[in-house]
Prior knowledge:
By secondary structure, the chain is mainly alpha-helical. It contains six helices and no strands. The chain has one domain (about 1-185). The chain has helices at about 1-15, 25-45, 50-75, 85-110, 115-135, 140-165. It is found in: Membrane. Keywords: Membrane, Signal, Transmembrane, Transmembrane helix.
Amino acid sequence: MWAFAVTVFLWSFYNVGTRSVNSDNAIIGMGLFVGGLAMFMAGMWEFPRGNVFGATFFTLYGSFWISYAASVFLLGVNSFSTEVPTTKDALGLYLMIWFIITFFFFLAVIRVNIAFSVLLFFWGLSYIMLSTSHWSNHHGQSLRDAGGAFGFVTALISLYIGLSQVHAAEYSLIRMPTGNINKEHSV
C-alpha cells in the first residue's frame, strides 16, 4: 500500500502544480519502479495467497503506473501540455477508463471494508477530476487541482491502510482499525 501511496502523493504534487512544476517527467522513475514494478510484484504475490482482490488491485494499479510512466517517457506525453488537443482528449479517455476500473473496485469492497471503500471513493474522484480537466477549456486547472487534492486524500488513506497492515502482525502492540465489515471477506 505504501508504494501506491507515495506514487499517488508525488503525482498529486504535480497535479496541483507545486513549486510551479509544469512537467510530469519526474514521475517516470517512481511510476515505473515504485508504483509500477513493486505493486505489480505485490499483486503476483497475492495470487498464491488466494487474495483475488489484492492480486487484481495491485496488478492493475501497478500496470497503471507502468503504462502512465511509459506514456510520459516513451511517447513524450505531457499531461500539462495545452498545445495538442488530441493528446488532451486521449489522456482524458485514458484516465476515464481508470475511473471505471476504480468504480468496479469500489463496488467490490463497499460492503467489506470501510477504509478501502473510502480510499477507492477518493481515488475515483481524483481520476474523474483529472479526466475532465483534460476536456475542459475554462476550468481545466481548477479540475486538475481538485484531482490533485483528492489524490492527496487518497495517498493519506493508503498510508494509513499500509500502516494498519504492518501493525496487524501478531507481535504488534498497536491495532489500527480499517473497518472490516464482513469478517469472512476482509481485504
